[in-house]
Design brief:
CATH topology of the largest domain: Rossmann fold
Strand content: 15-25%
Structural class: alpha/beta
Radius of gyration: 20 Å
Order of helices and strands: EEEHHEHEEHEHEHEHHEHE
Distance between the termini: 32 Å
Shape: globular
Strand order of the largest sheet: 6-5-4-7-8-9
Number of domains: 2
Number of strands: 11
CATH class of the largest domain: Alpha Beta
Oligomer: single chain
CATH superfamily of the largest domain: NAD(P)-binding Rossmann-like Domain
């Protein structure tokens, strides 16, 4: 579903669409100095070396954690989604796939704004409490005995949620939409489930609710310089704190790519899998 040139053409194309690294060599008339830590949103990144046009690099502070630099695309995504929902302090925001990296980022950013977060997961992890990364309430689907919309309504005392950020889709989203508060909105940024969801016009109409989508802001075009000086610097400052968590499942060598990919699909709740080039 990815557009060219990010759509993989195996076995000829190197995999990977983002990552982080240090500038080893720069061409003429470039402004990024050798040794600069950069986040990269470009194709052919699963390699020891990659040639990337300067405009696609996001320079970061030298002491910024490399594990976070490699996930900077997710940090930008989480920031944009929280801003796009416009949920006000003390109101409720619901996120699906609560153990995903983006959901954890959303929860932490929303918490810093005083927004209450409901995190929906298939099954809670015994060794990790989502409340430690900003969730106010956790809804475990495997333990749910009622309709999901009814559960949300009970937890909000009938007020509903002001925003839903969803990357799952299917009947899960269909069950959640009726729990929206007046003027609430759904933002879709992914689709894990293959099935579709069904709604009636009045599920939206009488709530003055909206459904919209989000695609990573630099997916099709590189970051403008104005963003580098304001937005991106702000995101780096907030996420650099030790208490801002981005769990990493495991770091792999490039030769270990088959296991890394299989584990990322089979156990995504453990955190992102990282490739480290020696």
């Amino acid at each position: 579903m990815y557009p060219e040139p990010k759509k993989p053409r195996f076995p000829q194309q190197i995999a990977g669409n983002y990552g982080a690294g240090f500038v080893e060599r720069a061409g003429k008339n470039t402004s990024v100095a050798r040794g600069t830590l950069v986040s990269v949103t470009y194709f052919n990144t699963w390699a020891e070396y990659a040639v990337v046009p300067e405009q696609w690099l996001i320079p970061l502070p030298s002491n910024y954690p490399v594990e976070k630099a490699a996930q900077f695309m997710n940090l930008i995504t989480g920031w944009d989604l929280v801003e796009k929902t416009a949920v006000q302090p003390a109101r409720w925001l619901l996120v699906t796939a609560g153990h995903s990296s983006v959901a954890m980022i959303i929860s932490q950013l929303a918490q810093r704004k005083g927004v209450n977060v409901k995190s929906v997961v298939r099954k809670a992890r015994e060794n990790f409490d989502l409340r430690s990364v900003g969730a106010t309430e956790i809804i475990e689907l495997s333990q749910a005995e009622k309709n999901l919309g009814d559960i949300v309504a009970n937890l909000t005392e009938g007020a509903g949620v002001s925003g839903i950020v969803d990357c799952v889709g299917g009947s899960l989203l269909g069950d959640l939409v009726p729990s929206l508060a007046m003027g609430g909105q759904v933002i879709i940024y992914g689709g894990y489930r293959p099935d579709t969801f069904a709604l009636h016009n009045f599920d939206l109409l009488m709530r003055n609710a909206t459904i919209t989508s989000y695609v990573y802001r630099y997916f099709f075009s590189p970051p403008p310089q104005t963003d580098a000086m304001t937005l991106l610097r702000r995101i780096a400052e907030i996420s650099s704190d030790d208490d801002f968590q981005l769990p990493v499942g495991r770091t792999h060598s490039l030769d270990d790519f088959k296991i890394a990919v299989e584990e990322a699909i089979r156990r995504p709740e453990q955190g992102k899998r990282m490739f480290k080039m020696e």
